[in-house]
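Continuing the series of single-chain predictions for the mutant panel. This is the parent chain; the variants come on the following pages.
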Amino acid sequence: MKKNTIVTNLIIFIAIVIFLNLVSLSIFTRLDLSKGKIYSLSKASKQVARDLDDRLVIKAYFSKNLPGEYADARRYTQDLLSEYQAYSRGKLRFEFIDPSDEATLKEEAGKNQIFPVQMRVVENDKLEIREVYLGLAFLYRDKTESIPLVQNTRGLEYDITKLIKKITAQGMKKLAFFQSQPLNEMAAMQGQQNPGDIHSTVRQLLADSYEVSVIDLQDPVESAVSILVFSGTEDSLSTEQLYNLDQYIMSGRNIIFFQDRITTDIQTQQAALIESNLFQLLRNYGIFLKSNLVTDAQCGQVQVQRQQGMFRFMTPVNYPFFPVINNVNKQNMIVKNLEQMQLIFASELDTLRLTEGLTFEPLLFTSDNSGEVKAPQLDISVGNYMNINLKNILLEGPKVVSGIYTGRINSFFADNELYPDVIPFTESAAILVVTDADFIQDNGGAGVKGNLDFVLNAVDYMASESTLIEIRARETEFKPLKEISNTGRKIVKWANILLPSLLLILIGIIRYRKEIKRRKFLGELYE
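Parent structure:
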């Protein structure tokens, strides 16, 4: 009887284990206490996995003999893919493959755009060059996409979710990119450098999620375009360009302006007001860019050559016309998770002169120690700021340099008899303005990660494709220490010096008093 009971209990235990394993295939959870929950999937990624309507296979081509510093990349990737698989309800499957020693697997990896990379490895006091695989291939129906190299796990979730959305989409939304200087398409096709192409970095990033075309606004914007990026101009637009721009906005479609109010030349240290009919159009809508340049004590630096005796050397100087932005509207999803952006000769938005029916939501502010240089006295000389504590002279408070205008606006051509077919107004305008055209230029702000994240977030938001925004900035790189006063520094310093000693003394006193009580108790017990 006892033996039968043991067998019965064993069978019940095995059945429970099998049942729990079956349940775990469809029910998955993970406790993640890290800031931003960066070690578990975001809600957006979980939803993308759940929304799969057909089988998706991910082949992870990873060598087994990875150098030690990349072993974590394999483990992290496997954990991440396991989560995608758990939330996909059986639609997503993945497998790890080591193609290093098999020609057929190498050929398969190559067809899936995964190629080996050479890495230097030090083992047993020897330096050797090792060929390894670190890539992911996504196979869905008749489509194939790839992440050729998983060298850094930062941002891997974003890359995977973005590719899943791309490969499963029926078609990408269309984005038009206005550039005042037309591209030399023939030079681009031949792989030659095009001196007019100063936005290639931003366009390449956008091309991963949107069907991007470059336009000059000489013709009406095609109806399939859902968002327009205006990269700035220093001249007036032709009447046809202005009309096509106006009617695009009147059609209820969204636009992002990256536009300077002041043109500058850092080499000659000269600046001048931009005289363009674009500002007449914007003012008609209720959008006013002030004729100034904002200055900020929290700023980037420029190198200044100085002479001392026979020697010349470069000296870094804090230059307030290059504001470093980390003061953002935490209520808006475009910027709430962004840590740092860089502006170059930006102007201020006048938020007090809105037309009736138009609302404004600020996005980016300068710091509490800000100021301005007004036209026509636009002195941008670097020498004005050498050996100066900018916080002592910039005391005007934060200034708005970016925001979103929404609501009703009237067409700039509403009363023009030459355009009888004009759309006279729109009730659903959405216009995002950044008062800095350099923000997205290759030789300007496009080299700053925060700027690129802002552009991607802004485009996704304005195109109603906000799924990826919450993932993009989950892992931030810029974590500045909060500035404290000299008195505060001294308090922290002496607290670090004295507190451990005081704690040890306090623990010693407590233990001593406990020992005295114990001895007293034992003495009374045996008297």
